[in-house]
Amino acid sequence: MITQLITKIVGTKNERELKKLKPIVQKINSFESEIQKLSDEELSRKTIEFKERLSQGAPLDEILPEAFAVVREASRRVLGLRHFDVQLMGGIVLHQGKIAEMKTGEGKTLVATLPAYLNALTGRGVHIVTVNDYLAKRDAEWMGPVYRFLGLKVGYIVSGMDDEERKEAYQADITYGTNSEFGFDYLRDNMKYSLEDMVQRDHYYAIIDEVDSILIDEARTPLIISGPSEESTDLYYYIDEIVRKLKKDIHFTIDEKTKSAHLTEEGITECERLLGIKNLYNPRYVRIVHHINQSLRAHHLFKRDVDYVVKDGKVVIVDEFTGRLMPGRRWSDGLHQAVEAKERVRIEAENQTLAMVTIQNYFRMYEKIAGMTGTAETEAAEFKEIYNLDVVVVPTHKPMIRQDFPDLVFRTYKEKLEKVVEEIEENYKKGRPVLVGTVSIEKSELLSKMLKKKKIPHQVLNAKHHEREAQIIAQAGRSHAVTIATNMAGRGVDILLGGNPEGLAKTQLSAEGYDLNEIPERAWNEVLALARQGQNPTEKYPDYWATLLYQKYLECQEDAEKVRSLGGLYIIGTERHESRRIDNQLRGRSGRQGDPGASRFFLSLEDDLLRLFGSDKLKSFMEKLGLPEGEPLEHPWLTKAIEQAQKKVEAYHFEIRKHLLEYDDVMNKQRETIYSQRKEILKSETIRDWILSMLDETAEDLISETIFEEKNISMDALENLKTRVKEVFAFEPVFSEKSFTNKTSLLEELKKQAISTYERKEKLIGPDLMRNLEKYFLLTTIDSLWKEHLLILDHIKESVGLRGYGQKNPLQEYKREAFHLFVELMRKIRETTLSYLFRVELREEAERIQEMVLEEGEIDEKKLEFKREDLFEEKPQAQEPVRSVKVGRNDPCPCGSGKKYKKCCGKESGEKEVEHEMSQM
């Protein structure tokens, strides 16, 4: 009650935020008349003026009002699009490093030009992150003319580009790309052996489009660069055959909520029988147990055409949020191989992690991040907790008049689909466009079959190429259009009532053989701008393409009026998604820019969400009502109950993301240390001092490890020290009697001899080549041992959960072990690098030394030889003298097998006592 009263007096937090923005918007508007008077050249020169002001110490916030006014005028001249006041608000929110929630159709792509231009003036580069390659390229090409008009460079990153193209795109003032491309480039850069090969610059400012999709939906899957491990794939096929013989609820149980499978007591016994082993949970069979569990999940929790498709003999993952295929992405931990075995396709070797970063930790590297989306308010708490991002809901340019009807709930899935088809048919006959959202490929195809039987023409969007997807979704607002799509298909594309004239004209021109590249983008935009203002553009542009575009514009406008009179675009949701945001995104496709529209969700008690997370009261209530077949239940109370179910799932997924982040935070600190060390090595002209420092530390480690007495050091301890020194430094130290007195003098003696040996090696090889070798061996050692370290951490993460049974906090245990492992990793890096450097020798004569340094600054490994038998190989043992002994038939066999002699080497012999040769012990 008190909270409501305070809110009434001072307004909500969002209202207070918007109130602060209004004076800034007024200041931007005050520049408009002055800036409109400038010529094109004078307008573009403003960029140089702003940069000079920044170099003199002016803050960005001081320049903001005039800079935004300049971008607005440039956009009006180049694209024919002028920013509304609410778009200016959105731009200010983004510049402040917050999330701007703006409804679909409010022009978020145009909004991003404002803060992108302002922050690019610093010269440090701005990254604009989109959800797919098509949108990255489209937005860069669409908004590029505005930036170029103002003297800035624009680039974009898409898959398939080589390093030179990527480097050029990152050097631009503003770079568009997807989150995965930016993340993978970061990981790849930290595996490079030369600064010149790195493509990215510093992480300064990122604007994330569809921020909820990237920072929340995709945050459960880390970005991983992996290489194939050497494990055999035969085991997967073998386990798959065994799992096929197990029976559900007898041999194993399934938990659909957590997507896990567990063997029962009967199942364990059956597996032991089928495998021919006595104890399945013997430590030596831990891999087999793991593979059985993964195979059970593959068979009973991962469905074909829902979670994955089989295409060209390969298992391709389907993104659960977008319904798109994700070629190249694989499930980890042997799950992908288990699915391949299930589908009887060729199994690709399991991959080993070479580099990994979570989406959360990648974007937290930026000095400033901001985001925009149509739906962020439901996840505001998570944005604040994980990324320290506030959400500001920006008002719409025109009032929202879409009708959102309550959900209809049916008893069975069949009844629901029949009603959906009936609803589609009714609206199709009227001419009203319908967009149907489904949650999987399988369900969209089932609905498509039912519509074909009714002879209703329609388009189906599931896992197609992004460009074709965008073209189809852009025309989903035409009269009589019926489009079936996964809930997120074509995200980022506007659905215009009556259709998109630009798309229609381009399609026809391409079909008629016109080269669209010959038509200037500015001219194309001007034709549309004049048409929107009610003028005839063909007077200025008499060309055929302009006439066709104007004709399509008029057709679309006429059709739009017809669609508006029918109630606008009708959205039908065939199932509630696990997240309320994705339902809201589907709804948000309708009712853009003050257009009419409607939405309704059709549900059944057999839907996954209601079946797994719905209340039992809901089911019993439906049964008690005794509704006739096909009769739905509609009530606001039902909608509320479904929302509660969704909240449960959202909370569950938030815990998963938080859990992933907590564990990755431990690794992130270690990753930052390793990557910053690599970068420092690459930047340094010489790392000789670094190597000598490593030598000192290693000498101290060897002394601490072998010498326990401070004074009067024993001969045994000294022998142990000599052995370890030879293992690492490849020479046997000679200690004077003075050094025996205490550890400090022994350490000084060891350091002196090690440095002397190293300097001799340096003189022999040559200082220039030695500097290259130092860098090369240190970098390769770091990369090799870091890869092993990641593998060990993966195993610990899997096993540490069991410590909860011992009343220990698994996260704290993981942190403790990870810390000790990292200390050990740093020690190994020092030792291994020094071992390489002390053992390297040249095969060639001195005059051919310089040939060893390749043009790229790398070392030709074929021309190097290592003396490393004392470190990496066992020395061949001297031949032991042989003696003969008498061995009885029931005595243990001397070969060491553990069997009796009569059942081992003496199997063929009938003698009671035999002579057997064996090594002298």
Automatic annotation (TrEMBL):
GO terms for molecular function: ATP binding; metal ion binding; protein-exporting ATPase activity. GO terms for biological process: intracellular protein transmembrane transport; protein import; protein targeting; protein transport by the Sec complex. Monomer and homodimer. Part of the essential Sec protein translocation apparatus which comprises SecA, SecYEG and auxiliary proteins SecDF. Other proteins may also be involved. Gene3D superfamilies: Helical scaffold and wing domains of SecA, P-loop containing nucleotide triphosphate hydrolases, SecA, preprotein cross-linking domain. Its cofactor is Zn(2+). It catalyses: ATP + H2O + cellular proteinSide 1 = ADP + phosphate + cellular proteinSide 2. It is a peripheral membrane protein. This is Protein translocase subunit SecA. It is found in: Cell membrane; Cytoplasm. It comes from Caldimicrobium thiodismutans.
